[in-house]
Amino acid sequence: MIPEPALRWILTIAFAAAGAFCLYHCVRHGRAAHRVGDVLHLAMCAGMIAMAWPAGMNLARVPQILVFSAAAAWFVGLLVFDVRGRHSRLSLGCHAVMLAAMAWMVLVMPAAMTGMSTSEMPTSGEHAGMSMGGGTMTMSPSPHTPPHVVVVAIVLTVVLVVAGVWWLTRAIDSARVADGPRLPAVSLAVDAVMSLGMAVMTGALI
Questions:
Q1: What share of the chain is helix, strand, coil (3-state, %, to 5)?
Q2: Residue 72 contacts residue 103 (beta carbons within 8 Å)
């Protein structure tokens, strides 16, 4: 999905670091609801890493759509039924949007990535997005991407950028109050990284 190798590696490292923190936080901290959220975000990070690479296009789509749709529903459920206000409602909404965006990207990928950028035409039996001995072939958004996919991608990119900047601002404020990076500040920074990283991925569909 990401044709530029440098950007692909940057996203991979960013999501790998975010996923590692989610795993640490799941094991060491939080109530049951927090641990479920950490596991869902860990799955999202793994999915985003796979999606950034051509080989990820070969993964089964239906299980991914079901998992990420259920994950989005989980955060919507917390948003609706968290009557005691244990969680930030705006934060829950942003997490729901992120996971819904993940499911949507998996769903529309075949329509959005029908174009190819190639240094040579594929031979019989080759798959789009795979490296070839005599040249490199990568998937890129097609000029014939359906307009509704582009519109949704634009909306999601804007929302994810705004959410990422909001989380980053909160992380900086939290670190200042704590007189140095502490777990809440790091957690907010990780949310910002995931949101901004996803914004790059949705922006690639525009």
A1: 70, 5, 25
A2: yes
Q: How distant, in Å, are the alpha carbons of 60, 91, 170, 191 from that of 85?
A: 37, 12, 18, 19
Q: What angle is formed at CA 12 by the lines to CA 114 and CA 138, rounded to 5 degrees?
A: 25
Give the span between the Cα atoms of 203 and 206, in whole angstroms: 5
Give dist(CA 18, CA 160) in Å, integer: 16
> What does the pLDDT average to over 116-126?
37
Q: What pTM was estimated for this model as a whole?
A: 0.80
**What is the structure's pLDDT at 69?**
96
Reading phi first (left if > 0) and then psi (alpha if -120 to 50, else beta), residue 30 is in left
Asked if residue 146 lies in contact with residue 111, where contact means CB atoms within 8 angstroms, the answer is: yes
The pLDDT tens digits for 58-83 are 889 999 999 999 999 999 998 888 65
